[in-house]
Write a structure and sequence with these properties.
Elements (H helix, E strand, L loop, with lengths): L5 H15 L4 H27 L18
Length: 69
Amino acid sequence: MFGLRPLEMLLIVGVVLLFFGPKRLPGLGSSLGSAIRGFKRSISGQEEASDEKPTLPQATSSADPHTKA
C-alpha cells in the first residue's frame, strides 16, 4: 500500500515498542480500532441524515401541565 519494505516495517514496530511499551500496545490497538469504527459510523450516519429533510423541533403548547409559565 505505502511501499514499505520489511526492514522499514520492523524499524517502525521497534520504535512503537520503545515509545509505548509492550503492555500498552493491545489497549492502544483496541482504542484505535474503536475510533476508526466510530468515525465510519459517523460518516455513514451523516450521509443517511443528509438524504432526509431536516425537521424542526415540536413547539410546546402553553396548555402543557409540565411547563411553567
